[in-house]
Structure formats: C-alpha cells, structure tokens
Structures
1.
Amino acid sequence: MSTVLTLLAVYFLYLVVPPLVKWAFIDADWTGTSRQDCTGGGACWVFITVRFNQFIYGFYPAGQQWRVNLAVILLAVMLVTLYFKRVSLKFQVVTVIALTYSLIVYILLVGGVLGLVPVDTSLWGGLMLTLIIAGTGIAVSLPIGILLALGRRSEMPVVRALCVAFIEIWRGVPLITVLFMGSVMLPLFLPEGMNFNKLLRALIGIVLFQSAYMAEVVRGGLQGIPRGQYEAADALGLGYWKSMRLIVLPQALKLVIPGIVNTFIALLKDTSLVLIIGLLDLLAIVQAAFTDPDWLGYAVEGYVFAGFVFWLFCFSISQYSRYLERRLSVGR
Amino acid sequence: MEDRIGKKVVIDMRGINKWFGSLHVLNDINLLVRAGERIVICGPSGSGKSTLIRCINRLEEHQQGRIIVDGTELSDDLKNIEQVRREVGMVFQQFNLFPHLTVLENCVLAPLWVRKLSRKDAEETAMQYLERVHISEQAKKYPAQLSGGQQQRVAIARSLCMHPKIMLFDEPTSALDPEMIKEVLDVMIELAEDGMTMLCVTHEMGFARKVADRIMFMDGGRIIEESNPRDFFENPRSERTKMFLSRILSSEKLC
Ligand SMILES: Nc1ncnc2c1ncn2[C@@H]1O[C@H](COP(=O)(O)OP(=O)(O)OP(=O)(O)O)[C@@H](O)[C@H]1O
Ligand SMILES: [Mg+2]
C-alpha cells in the first residue's frame, strides 16, 4: 500500500515539478525594463524586478527609503545581538527594548521631527506596510491579550465579566467586518472634520481583534501552571502582580510560544485583508501593478512573488520560534 | 500579648470554623502557639490538617472565628495578609519550587521583591541558608536537576531566606522516597533546635517524639487530642487516637 502511494507521489511530482521548473527558471526572463523583454515563454520576472521597489516600499519617497532600511537594519542588529549575546530575556529588558525600538521606528518612518521630512502614511505600502501592520498588531495585542487572560481568570466578577465579553465579541466577528466597521462606520459616529488616519484605524481594529485571540492563547498557558506555583508565590508574600510577573507568566508564556507564533503567522497573512479598506499592503500593491495596462497578463508572476515573500517570512518566524523554544527549555 | 508562662503568643486561633460547601472541614478549632514552640499535627486523611495550617497564612479563608498571627489579625485586608505572609514560611508536600528559576534565584526572589533587599544581600542570605540545608553546591542548578530530598531542602531554604518567625510544614516528607526522608527531617530537627516556631503536619512519629512540644491529633475537622509526646504515645486518651497510633506505628515498624 505504502509503495503504491510512494509511486503515485513520485509520479505526481514528475508531472508537476519539471514544467514548473521550466516555467519559473529555464524559460524565464530575468532582466529588462518593460514587457517587450518578456520573450522566453516562461515566467517574466522582469515584471517583479521593474516594480520591485514599489512592492517593498509602496509609494514611500525614493529619497527617504533609507529610513525604512535603517529600521530593518536596527531590527536585524537587535535580533542578532539577542542571538549571540544570550542576553537573558527578562521582562524589563524585553519591554524596554521593544518600547525603545517602536519609538525609534515611529520617528523614523513618520518623520516631522529631528529634521526628518514628514511622510504621510497614505504613501506607505507594499511589504513594508504588511510588516508594520503585523508587527504592531502582535506587539500591542500581546500585552493586551495577557491582561485580558488574567482578567478572565480574576476573582473579581465585574472584571471577569468585562474580559469575557470583550474576548467573545471580538472573537465572534470576522476580521474583515472589523476593518469595514473601522473604515466605514466609525467615521459616521465621529464628529465632522475629525478624520483620523486610515492606517491607525486599521491598526486599532486589528489590535482589538488580535488581542482577543491572544488572550485565549495565553489563558491556555495560565491553565497549564499547577496550583502549587500560585500557592508557593502567595506563601512567600509576593502578592498578585508580582507573582504573575515573576512566577506565573514566565512559565505560562513559555508554554504558549507555539500558540503565539501561530497567531502571529496567521496575522501576517491576514494583513492582506486591509486591501479592502484601500491600504496597499504587499498583495494589494502587486495586484494593482498587474492591472496596470503596461503589465496586463502577468498576474501569475505577481501572485507567485507575493506568495513566496509571505512564505519566506512565515517560515523564518516559525524557525526562529523553534530556536526560542529550545533555548528557553533549559532546566525543564 | 503575653501568655501565663511568659512566652509571647505568636498564633492565636479562636473558634475557627470552616466549610467547603456543606463539608465542615474545621470545627471549632482553638489553638495557641507560643514563640519557639514545636507542634506536630497528625490525623487521618481528610481530617483537615492541611486546611488548618493553610488558614494560618491565609491560603485558605476561615469563615468563623479569629486568627491572630504575630499580632496581626487575618481578615479580608490584603495589607494584613501580606504582613502575615512575610512572617510565616511554608513548606509544601510537593515542594512547589519555581521550575524556571535556578535554586539560588528561587531563594533570592522573595527577599528581593518582598523584603526589598539588595541583590548582593539577598544572595548572601540565600547562600547562607543553602549551606545550612547542606545544598549550597547546587545553587546554580534548576530544580528539575535535583532529587526530591534536595528539592525539599531547597524549599525549606527558600522559606528561611525571608527570616520567618513561624514555619509551617505540610507533610514535607510524604512525597519523598524513603531514603531521602531522613535528610529532610535532619534539616527540620536542626531548625527546631535553633528555636524556630514550627507547625508540622506529618506522620513521621519518630520526628514527632523527638522535637514536638505538643502533638495534636485531628479527626473530622476537630482537634481530638492534644498533649506532650510522652503522654500522646504512652497513654492516649481517645479511642480514635489509639487506633490511629496502632495503625501508623505498626506500619512504621514494617519499614
Ligand atoms: N479546595 C477544596 N474544595 C473542596 N473541598 C476541599 C478543598 N480542600 C480540601 N477539601 C476537603 O476538605 C477536607 C479536609 O482536607 P485537608 O486537605 O485539610 O485534609 P488533610 O487532613 O490535610 O488530609 P491529607 O492527609 O489527605 O492531606 C477533605 O475532605 C478534602 O476533600
Ligand atoms: Mg493534607
């Protein structure tokens, strides 16, 4: 039976892989400046190379793109330092690093201070926008989710009821609805003239939605901590917040790293939904590019490229999380 | 408050009643403990021993009566509860060490965050107590890397680092393999000899005979019998105590 399946699988691969390789590599065009250079009969990656800058930065002004690059370099430096220096991942350290980094990135990208030219968020787009939305979404929803999870297990009935209501409401609504409400309905309720940023509205929607999911992930971890841990912390006189912070959460969060990463990966892919409210994330900008008359007919290349970039990021994240899990499993 | 004998009363429980739902787990408990006293509590499973000592540091809430620990009355007031918990150490049957922290970190945690000692002072104190329970060479290890007996000694050291006035032990040797029981009991005996006020729930009758000033026998949520070790073992008054003793002493001889 298993030999038959293996043979079938091999045959299937034989049918699919060679034409795919031929299309994507052998017959593909790599260099050029316009569709006139698409002559090979295979994929025309010229479409991607010509529009590459836009796919990455959206309409962020060319002269200012170094600011985006700098933000990425900072992040890389940080991750590499964490990797090699083996800095202990203490609560305070992580919080301070995350807050400082967010502030720096905010100043860099938005500008308007320190001699940086302001860049309106309507010009942001492409991969950069995708990563900003996903990154902000996860970074803000994690702490909110933790508080909600703690609230849901609180002994105070009012707090508990509020947290349960919040979580269940946001979990029960599709993200696309949340985004629509944020962009279409919210302005109806706001006073005339008060028109706040479209990106900010999308971010708020995503964060609220995401924190409900995060809360449930974290709650799973909290349930995995034996009662004895709470009792030992109580008996030492640590008090609620200290015992949560020093004893319970470090253990609970470690338990749910896979869950958190899963949520993050799901969010990264879900960011493409923002295209329905007119934000040009990676997928949206690729779609916009192949509906441009110059490049009509190159949708497949566009989707393959967008898919590949998403895959690359999601895969790296899941690898990083596996490393993190291994590293944190000392002493267990 | 001074007692007749002149030693300070550190635990004063009066008319304590407690229910779990309809189950009456503590039934009119009265208990006075003076500074330096060593008390052993025994009794059959489910008789309320754990619940009794857990009321002393408010891991359980009593529903009737008053509990005054070192001059502080236990009530809903969080300040009082925290005050009491600072002065009362507790050792659990399952050790309950923090698995994500090293032995040393387990010990410095509360002094650092509750007593607000400097890290240097906290670590010095911790090493001192780890030495006292004969385990200082394991300070950098994680709890999971230690044997049960070693873990329990660490748990004792962790409590002692807070310089408690009272130590509560809830069956500290029941989860241990027989060959490790002695190392833990030895540490407890040393502690008793140093004058620590101790309340121990235990079925180690050898230990009780050796260190207890008073032995209390509980059954059905009541303190049935309370006397010094000699009377307790040689002429117990109640039938239930006799039965309990004959069962537990015969099983001890088998070991
Ligand atoms: N949180 C709780 N909720 C409901 N019932 C409880 C709870 N804790 C204990 N009980 C019950 O209260 C009674 C007394 O429990 P307790 O743990 O004090 O007994 P114990 O004397 O320590 O017994 P053991 O020797 O088995 O430890 C038992 O019948 C137990 O089932
Ligand atoms: Mg018990």
Note: The beta strands of chain B are 9-20, 23-34, 38-42, 64-69, 72-73, 88-91, 166-170, 197-201, 214-219, 222-227.
2.
Amino acid sequence: MARMMYREAVLSTIAEEMERDPNVVVLGEDVVGGNGTAGGPEAIGGIWSTSAGLYGKFGGDRVIDTPISESAIVGAAAGLALSGKRPVAELMFADFIGVSLDQIWNQIAKFRYMFGGKTKCPAVIRMAWGAGYNAAAQHSQAAHQILTGMPGLKVVMPSTPADVKGLLRTAIRDDDPVIFLEHKALYGVKGEVPDDKDFMIPFGHARLSRAGNDVTIVSTGLLLGFCEAVADKLAAEGIGCDVIDLRTTSPIDEEAILDSVEVTGRLVVVDEAPPRCSLANDICAMVAEKAFASLKAPPLGVNPPHTPVPFARELETAYLPSIPKIEAAVRKVLSYR
Amino acid sequence: MQLSRDQLLKAYRQMKIIREFEERLHIDIQTGEIAGFTHLYCGQEAVAVGVCEHLSTDDKIVSTHRGHGHCLAKGCDVDGMMAEIWGSRDGLCKGKGGSMHIADVDKGMLGANGIVGAGAPIAVGAGIAAKIDAKGHVAIAFSGDGACNQGTTFEAMNMAVVTKAACIFVFENNHYSEHTGFEYAVGTNKDIASRAEAFGMKVWRGDGTDFFSVFETMREVLEYVRVPGNGPAAVEFDTERFFGHFEGDPQRYRGPGELDRIRETRDCIKKFRASVTGAGLLTDADIDAVDADVMDAIENAVAKAKAAPRPTPEDVLEDVYISY
Ligand SMILES: Cc1ncc(C[n+]2csc(CCOP(=O)(O)OP(=O)(O)O)c2C)c(N)n1
Ligand SMILES: [Mg+2]
C-alpha cells in the first residue's frame, strides 16, 4: 500500500499504463504546458497536475499538448482509438463537454453498436467535475446525469484514491469508451492505494463504505464523504446506515442497491446534479420498480435545486447538498410510518 | 485624428481605472476573501479602451474569461463590478456570476464568458441584429490567441462573412493560452489576422500596448463595418498580460526577466503618459490628478463591496422560471 492523493493516483495510474502499453497516449490542453514558450515544455503537467512528468518520460508523440479545441480533442481521441491506440484525453472541466458533445454523443458512444460490433473504441475521456470552488456556473457542474443517459458510454465517478487507481486502470484497458469523472474537490484527498500494477476494480461493482440495517444511502464523488459523516453521526444514536459508493453510474450496480434496500426498506440517494432526470431520480425509480415490496418509505433524492451553480460562497453552499440536508432526508425516510 | 483634451483624459482614466481595479484585486485575492477563479486583464488596457472609446451603448460587445477590462471600458459600474467579484448581493449579477460572468446588457455588454470560444458566435448574432436594424451599430467579439483555435471561432468568422454581419473580431494576442505559447498553438504563420483574412474578411493589425495605435486602427475598422452591407472585419492586437493566467499561476512558462521587461517597455499606461506629456497635450499634473481620482474610486468600490449585504440562501431560487 502507498499513501497518495487522489490526483497522484490519477497521474501514477496513467504513467504505469503508459509504461506497460506503448499504445496509451495522453492528449489535452496544457497536459504538458510551456510548449512554444521561453520557459519550455513541462511548465505545468496539466492544470490538475495529473500529467506532470509524463512528457519528459514518454515524449511529445505520446503526451500531446493540444490547442483549445475540445471538439477536436475528443474527435482525435476517437480517431486514435479506431486506429489501435488507447487515448486518455483530458477536458480540463466537465463543463467543456458542451463544446465537444457531438464527438462524445454521436461519435465515440455509437461506433461499436452502429458499426454492427465491428469496432472497438478504447478511449478514456477524463474531466474534472463538481462544485465547491466558487468557480460559478460554467466551471462547477456535474455531467454524469447527461453522460449516463447516453447508450455506449461507460461512466466512472471515483470517490477515493484507491478507486481512482483501480477504476482508471480498468478504464484504460477497457475496449469501450469510458468517461472518467474526477471530482475537483477531491484531488487533494489522501488515501491508501494498492501497489499492485495490475490492481483493477471492475465496472458495475459498488463499494459499501458504511454498513447498517436501517437506511440505504447511495452516493458518489464529494458528497459520498458527506453521507459517511451523516452515517457516523447516526450510528452514535444507534441508527445504522448502509452507505453505497456507486463508483460507476453506467454500468450501475443495481444488485448492491436492491440487496441493501431489501434489508433497510428505506432509501436516500444523494446526487450533485439538479433533480430532474437525475441519478437520484433514476435510482429511486429503479428501486420503486424492483423492490417495491421491501419499501417502508418513499425513496428520497437529495439534489441541488434546478438552477445553474451560483458563484457567491453563501449561494454555492446553499446550492449544494450539505451534511444537514442529507441528515434531514435520512431522518425523514426513517420517520415515515 | 487628434483627440481633444477631454477625450484624452477620459481614455486615460478608463485605462487607469482598469489597471488599478486589477492591481487592487491582485492584492485582495491574496487574503482569501475573494472566492473563485479570477483572470486579471492588467497590461491589456489599451485594447479594451481603444476599442470601446469608439462605441455607444447601442454597440454590443461580447467578452471572455478575462473580462474585467472589457466590462469597465464598456461602461459597467465600477462599484457594481467590484461588488460582484466580492460575491455580494449588490453586485452587477447579484453575486450569482462572479468575475467570469459579469454582464450588463443595457450597456451593450453581453457578458464575460467562462467558455473559451463561446463569445464569437454570440457576437455574430448581435452583428446580424445590427445589420437588420441598419442604424450603423456593430457587435464586437473579444477573443484571445487561445480562443482563436476553437472551432466555434472559425464557424463564427465564416458565418459572419456569409451573412454580412456587422461584426468585428478583436483578437488580443497576449502570446499565451494558459501555460501554452501562441507559437505552439496557432499554426498559421504565427499570426491570427491572416486566418480571419482567409475567411474572407478585411483585417487590420495594431500594437495593443499603445492606446493610439488601437484607437486609430479601430477608427478605420469601425468606419468600414458601420457601412451597411460591408459585413465583418477582424483585427489583431499584439499585447501583454502582466499577471499569471489566473491568480495563483506559478508562470513557469515565462522567460527570465520577462515580467520586468514587459512592465518596463510594454506598459500602455506608461506609454500613454510619455506620449501625451511629450507632445504637450496633457501635463503630468493633469495625469496625476486622474490617478488620485482613480485611487479614490477603487478604494471606495472596495469599501462598498466589503460592506455590502451578502446573498442569502433564498436568493438561490431567484431569477428562475420554475423550481423543483
Ligand atoms: C471551452 C474551454 N476550454 C478551456 C478552458 C480553460 N481555459 C480558460 S482560459 C484558457 C486560455 C485562454 O487563452 P486566450 O484565449 O489566449 O485568452 P487569455 O487567457 O490569454 O486572455 C483556457 C484554456 C475554458 N475556460 N473553456
Ligand atoms: Mg492569450
């Protein structure tokens, strides 16, 4: 085991996979940095430091600084993937999927099916998502609610450094396109990470981060930690919560959720995207459909409001699901008779 | 064209207010009191002011993530902008937008923008509206050297040409897009204007560190675009940014002594003073008086921003047409 930050887990996994497989190629804006400047290359190594040192090690053919051209970044990843490479493309912020949406939605997501199964598209599109930085409406958004709804994409949302390691390795070795969503407020979080250079976590397998028999809480990303805090607080009162970290939203581990709800009969889904057509709605509906007989209370989603992400500290704090809001939701489903 | 004493004083004041607004933010950001991502315009003042001094409120501009200078030059309220950046309820956008999203549509300022390359297509729409209205108004898209690589910018240029939109693409080439050099990222002859030319536009080039170069260039560009039927134009200004890409940038891409050198030799405010006092158009005392006035205005704006009411949780649900 090694102790490292979430961002270091991203970097070291990419480096290990580049070492192992010469077809792995990194591309994105400022992934090298300093190209064409007096300071020279390697000025930054990605704005999240998730590609620092890769250029020195693997060279400019495999670590590609791109112009500001998200559509061409994702499109090039598609072309690389169709040509035998394993691109790991970075969009600095998940919000920028807007610029590249055709290449994600109509191209990489569709090749395998639309071409009658004749091709693979092993592209990883990494991006930083989420609020908490007061970065306002165009640099703080969740994107999983949009991308999870697109057939053909696998969508990964790690919440811990160890999960970054295991899931990113699986993503890079996967033959389908994978959207890898890194929560920007977690980059500095540290955790134990297995050293094994083949450590992989299969997609569609959730992680039980707290165990209890009274309520099921499902979440991912930054808010998972909030849910754990609520579970720990309630545990002191003798209330037991299963906290399920989804890890991947597509494929989704329905079984883990249903197994838990069959015991608890009560469900809260905590989601950083606005409520309509959200992950929370999706899971609540799935549980209502498949575990109706087990339910002792209506399933409840905790989401931000149906608004863009506001800028000011007070507004962003009010916008995001918080520990008190999650606790209130859990108590609400518990109080239902 | 010789500017009057009042015009010179106004132009200088506009540049100076941007400069001091940014210098003050640079200091206040270190304290941690200002939240979010802030990109300072310091060094590029001559471009915003040299362009906007030609415009009326009926002319539109669309700005970028580095938008404070464009906003101030287009007449946005200094107090309202400072309050917005401080995230207060009195801010121009009630604390909902922040530094990257300042807008004042009544002033013809259609918004700073957090998405690089998003502005140019919006300016085309405003330019088509100006063409339809046929009153000689124009729409201006400010874009950086980085934004000129975005497909949206290419599409906007072509569409402006084919629709004959009354639209001007102003490219501010400060040589960097975040940490990457312009010479690496822009493939065409290390030059942006020639790209615009290839799209079928008339183009101009100017020194973005010299107010008079920008102002004179823009006089010609506007004379051309304001003529109904002429369609769009583009202009590239070579300029410098004095701070990092964002506040907190280690700036490892700079050469040794680069920041000192550009502050010394490429400072539009120093150059303006030297030029007007040298020509006997204004005196040092005239300029010092503006400086003192500007410092008061900034001090005042900061005091007001700090004292302004903070937004409340209920404000999150204001300005939406429906809540869930
Ligand atoms: C679509 C999009 N891609 C990337 C970014 C991140 N980003 C913000 S500013 C910037 C560089 C912009 O360079 P330039 O257009 O030259 O403007 P400057 O910063 O020099 O004013 C980048 C890459 C963004 N905000 N939006
Ligand atoms: Mg630039």
Note: Residues 144 and 219 of chain B are 21 Å apart (CA to CA).
